[in-house]
Design goal:
The structure holds two protein chains of two kinds. By secondary structure, chain A is an alpha+beta fold. Chain A is built from four helices and eight strands; from the N terminus they run E-E-H-H-E-E-E-E-E-E-H-H. Chain B has six helices and three strands, in the order H-H-E-H-H-E-E-H-H. The chains are: A alpha+beta, B alpha+beta. Chains A and B meet through strand 2, helix 1, helix 2, helix 3 and helix 4 of A and helix 1 and helix 6 of B.
Chain lengths: ~160, ~110
Amino acid sequence: MTQKTKIQAEAGKQELVITREFDLPVALLFKAHVVPELVEQWMGTKVLKLESKPHGSWQFETTNPQGEVVFRANGVIHECMPDQKITRTFQMEDSPFDVQLEFLEFEALTDTTSRLTMHQVFRSVALRDQLLQLPFAKGLNWAHDRLQEVVSQLIEH
Amino acid sequence: MNLRRDVFQAIADPTRRAILLLVAAQALPAGAIAANFDTARPTVSKHLQILTECELLKAEPNGREIYYQLNPEKMKEIADFIEPFRQLWEERFNTLEALMKDYSSKSKES
């Protein structure tokens, strides 16, 4: 399978850019980012709050199979322009990491395809590089398990 | 010691990045490398030492001089470093795509 997600992380810069083209109309791609029940399924996290509007806020929480909270993050929505743009902050709770700023841009390529560009800005280069190492052992397996779970749910439908 | 983080600290410095680009073309002795920079010679030596310690550079004696060359394996490690993070997003986005295709076909049925 070809890998569609590209990450641009230049050495010495406190930012990174994630791009991905989807075989989806831009409206559906956008919807997947603002409807809590949909975000829950593809992000593999519980959405406690998601107010997709300027001055709105959001909070996600992930629990392990034993029901213990393993991850909680929150932020504020600065801009939310349907099918175009979301500007928001992201911060992990109970972690030493400073908040990051995220610009999500949604673009229609054709009637049935679209592109997402996610620009993340960190407080420092060191912080960006440290955060890049996080999903390794635990996070990656966890994301993979969730993926299989969601896919099997889709098949059952 | 976290070697991976050291590699990133090593390439976070603009002079060290310039040194890596310079020796990518050909192996060079310290003097020839220093000649490319306005910085004092001991400063360049310190940079070379850091790059060698984190294995981005290999120091090979050649006659009376030590030649510095790029270590391609270690450079590859930097590229691979992003890979788990990239895969995490790849998987999330694959799920998103499958989910929304399903969502779209369901809303058409109803």
